[in-house]
Write a structure and sequence with these properties.
The chain has 137 residues and is mainly alpha-helical. It has 5 helices and no strands. The two termini are 24 Å apart.
Amino acid sequence: MLSSLFQSTTIPVLQEVLSFSQARHAVLAGNIANVDTPGYQARDLSVDDFQARLKQAIDDRDEPTLGSPGEAAFAPQPLMAEVAKSSRSILRHDMGNVDMESQVTEMVKNHMQHNLALTILSDQFRQLQSAIRGTVA
């Protein structure tokens, strides 16, 4: 009963967002730590892939009966997304491609996503606590 209560809320989704942002933070921190390492290639976890998979998991949870197993609807990637990907692979003279400004920017965006998910998760738990106590928050 208790597990079905948690599964019907956004708590599992927020837990996945927090786990992803923590793992991505570690990868981005490693990039910054190696900014001066010759030949180091920046690594990252794909936010777009994570969001697509998370959306699919939510859709599967909300609609357990989908079309036939062979059906798959993939939206074509916008052309500019490919251009943005290609500009990330610019190499420096030491054969590395870590750009401090972009890594810090990505880290800040990741930190904001983590804090937002944590705030929403705290509110969810506070609401559950109020419901259990029978008080209004």
